[in-house]
Amino acid sequence: MFQLCYRDWQAMVSVLASWMASFQSSMPTMFELSQVEAFLRLHFKQIIQGIVIARRMQLMASTLLDLHTLLEVPIKREKLKSICHMIVLMKVIKSMFRKKELYIIQSLPHLLNLAQADICSWLLMAKDKLQSEISKGSQASKIRILSSFIRGGRDADTSQFDSLSLVSIALKMLQGGGSDMRRLSLLISLDALQSIGYLDFEYSRIKKLISKVATVADFQRIVEEVTDCSFLYWRKEMMRTWFSMIYTDGNKLSWLQYFLDGCADGLWLLKLGNVGEFTLHLHEEEIEDAVKREIIAPLCRDIETDLRLHVHSIHLEGSVRVNPTKTGVTNLSWYLDLKPLRLPFKCIDLKSHVKRYLNSVFYNHSAMSSYDSKIYSDMKHLAELKYGMVLDHHLPVCLDHESEVIEIVHNLPHFSKSYSYNMINQVFIEKISGSQGQKTLRVLGVGSVVNSVTVYGVGIISTASDSVMTFLTQKITDLSDFLQDNVLSFHSLKEFNFGKVESHNLVTRKLPFGENEMWFLERLFSIIIEMGNAIGLLRVLQTGGLRHINSVSQFIPKHTNIKSFAEISHNLGFVDGTVLAGKLMDLAVKNRHQTDEWMKSFPSLLAELSKEIKHGENIFFRDFYLIIPALVLSYVHSTINCKDNNFRRLQSGDYQMTRDDGFMMGAAFILKVMEQEKSYDVLYWLSGANNKLDEAQLSLEETKHREQRKNSLV
Known about the structure:
This protein is mainly alpha-helical. The protein is 70% helix and 3% strand. It has 29 helices and seven strands.
């Protein structure tokens, strides 16, 4: 039985191929009048033939599935592919009828008139025959028949006249359009004519032609019936297997949309059964999930693997280099060139899903290991070249996307020690040593803050600012404790001649701090830098938050007398969509005013911190301004030594010369909150230092001039 069905299927495929080639051919623009009738008859025959083929395939597919289920016989893969092919071809026939639908409707009156003319020709022949037979009868027989009618006799033979009347009625029904009522009257008259049995005519041929006329007249509904694949709903567990077969066979790519249409016919069956919305949504999710798991997910993985292999063949030594646009296992670009897959409830764009997947993968991998960003950048460009996909350009050509505010806030002590602050560019650059083996530097700037605010909301600025304020308060306490523990060193440096700071024995005192031993000034210097970096972070957070607020609120009115856009839209009688837009506008205005409340100004934050510090007992900060010159000298000398060693560091691969303004920010912050700015200015230390430098430079120039004169005399 199964072998017979599959053998019939092979023969049906060849018949369908010839029908499709014939049905797709368009009507010639120039033809003779005799050719019109031949073409219409051919077109009439093609419509009937297509419907019959679709009906046979529908019956065969449903029968095979039912037999395998009833007999519990497993379906082989090739047989399963044949059933899938039947479903696809049914939807192909439906698609072809839809493409030719307008042309069929335009030619439908001519097709019906031609078929009715054929029926009329047969009935007219029968009518002529009856009339000739009646005319051959004698006048006496006619009078006898007429008198029998008048007397109401029952023995008279009226079959000739009854048959003639029925033929006349049938001809009358064929003179109008092919409506259902006329066809019904025609069939009744022909059945009555056949029951009389007096007239021998082509009853079976006429009956078959009338059936064809009814089919062509109602071809839209009949095509929907014979191409209906709702029986697949009862075999939905096989849906994923069919999708997987279509994906793995690249030659069957064109089947995808047609088979998806067949699976969606189950929704029509459910609606016909008046099921609930939950059951409908459940079947919709099953279809969508099957497409995502068996089509989209493998396609995303295969394209990623293809890009990765081609890019690694360039970067890895010893690998064979190939042309990535011509060499590959399969041509996956065909899948991306497909039109969006249409479902009754949504459209699925394969290219959009693949782009979203690659964007996510490239971003996540480059974020976890930023030194691989070059590889993923090459993969991005290759995807554009080979597959025509323009991916998001969020790969880190500049590493200011590498640091996020949440990550930094959770580890402020490490951040304050490991980053250098540039107050001009408002950016933090990671400090690095050659022993760490890093290939890139992490950067935090205003743009990074804007990105974080876009993701996490403006509330992150308030949270981060509170964390920084807590950190600064703790650092003030640590600095006070440190000065208290080293009060002798502190007083000695205050009273020491600043020109001999480097030779003082207290400067060479070492204090334990973590793994490294720091000098007293260096330890004090590091604490101030950490505080300065925290202040710089506050500035960057404030700037980034304000930039984000400015960008999102540039189209929102700042001052308006309108209390509620939604209420005004409702009062004016606008449609629901306009009222909803008004609600969204009200929400945006409300959020903008809330963000203004969340964003505290930088001076107000410093004022709060200064108020908290003054409440504490920080007596060791009273003369802190006196030690600033020693710290400045230490900072200047360390900077000079760093510049002197540039060449050596460049050769060792450990060269990094970045601007570090954390010390200036920290020192200025302490002087500000302790109100020692005027006391520091009274020292006139900067002017004295400038005079000393000018004298040293003048002395150096005089010495150089004397040496030149001495050399010239020699």
